[in-house]
Amino acid sequence: MLQSDTEVGSVGVQLKRWTRDEYRRLVEQGVLREDDRVQLIDGEIVEMPPQNPAHAGTVHLVAEALRTLLRPGYSVRVQLPLALSPSSEPEPDVAVVPGAPRDYLREHPASAVLGVEVAVATGEFDRGRKAKVYAGAGVPEYWVVDPTAGTVDVFRDPAPGGYGSCTRLGRTDRVTPLAAPGHSIAACDLLP
Number of structural domains, the chain? Predict the structure, then answer.
């Protein structure tokens, strides 16, 4: 059982915090494989659960809904890294980034205009630690889509400690992404 930071710190031991450069070297050296389901969050290598059909299907629904809505000049990325800080490289289920896919052939995007996580087994983590990582990086909008509960949590107003606002939407509600003013999506179109 892994101890919390407080428990580890109380015996004079510190957890090793990884940087993005060290994390990439672990992949280059074969310690981590490209297909391992891990992400770097606040310097910790976090193992993500396998995707079940509800998760995979919801990711696809969200990506398709966003692609039909956004104007040229934005790319919708599915489960690809964002280089948000020296110690965080999450792989959001869906991210909307400025530019075209060819803009990111050498480096991962350093930010996004929208990050989306699908919360089937990771809701608390997505609404907590991951939300703080996205907010701390200045991502203006972050959604947590929960297919089990039939809700979409819309986080806005990022600050270093987290988002200033969160609105929970049900299936009959609509959301207007900040990157697509004047265009809204029905929450039911994001949910299975």
Answer: 1
